[in-house]
Design goal:
Double Stranded RNA Binding Domain, hpI Integrase, Chain A, elongated, DNA polymerase, domain 1, four-stranded mixed beta sheet, 351 residues
Length: 351
Amino acid sequence: MKLPKNLTYRRKGKSFYWRNPATKKEISLGPIARRDAISQAIEANHYIEQNYSPVLLLEKIKGTQEYTLNSWLERYDVIFKRRKLSESTYKARKGQITIISEKMGAMVLSKITTRHIAEFLEFWVVQEKHTMATTMRSVLSDIFREAIVEGRIDTNPVTPTRAATATVKRERLELDQYIAIREAAAALPAWFGLSMDLALITGQRREDVALIRFEHIVDGRLQITQGKTGAMISLPLDLELRVLGLKLETVIERCRQASATGFMVSSGIRKNSKDGSLNPDSLTKKFVAARKLAGIVLEDSPPTFHEIRSLAGRLYEKEKGKEFAMKLLGHKSVKMTDKYLDTRGKEYVML
């Protein structure tokens, strides 16, 4: 029996290969039975014929060929840049767009259905990567929403799909665990223990803690502009967590004594850091080392350095109330922890 189009058998590898006519990429079917290879090829060819419209020469000349998702993604990239989000956010979105482009880019934008979206998301769902599935659904929804705004399509094929239930597996850091880990940190470089104190008293992310400089102290306040959201927080130097007797001004003074650079937390000038700044990953790695030294053994996903921020929020909520904790963290609400304060007025939030 003659092989169907796009299917090839290579004697050298004793395997069948199917060539995707839309992407021009070849996919190995492996050393499977001939009838199975033919069956799969026919099914794949049928799918392509149903979902990809060939562009005729006359259509190319007239410029009337059907608009693909890849074409729209180029336009979407321009739209997304206008939002002026952080560099890390844009970098993450570019990676997500690349995945979407590889899987669905050659499809005609107007012919993408809810079934196509569901099949795309199923790739992560079956692997129990629910967080990734939820994230990609959100990205796809935004992509198609913008296409509707510009009149490319009429409906959003993502809307009818169900959002995967994401389960947060990382355990919370409790106060007694923090104290044990902080004590164990005494066996590590001094800057690390101070980074834990600075993270707890300020409630900021590790990326922001690593970038806090002494020059950020203005008129008796520590001013922090969050890198992820741009939220601007102004902390009084007499800020205190009573449960630990920890004061911001005391932590800063200890940092002055330990740091030989302009950064409050620094291991000094070195080959891979000319200005003495720390890579945020260094905080995470040292935290894991201190956690092990403290003998804290947890199953599943143990808390990381980032969980100090959550602990700070919970402690401040008990001592100063929910509103104070939300302002400190840059949150709009307790329930919507990923929604940050609107900083369009470019004014520091005074605490």
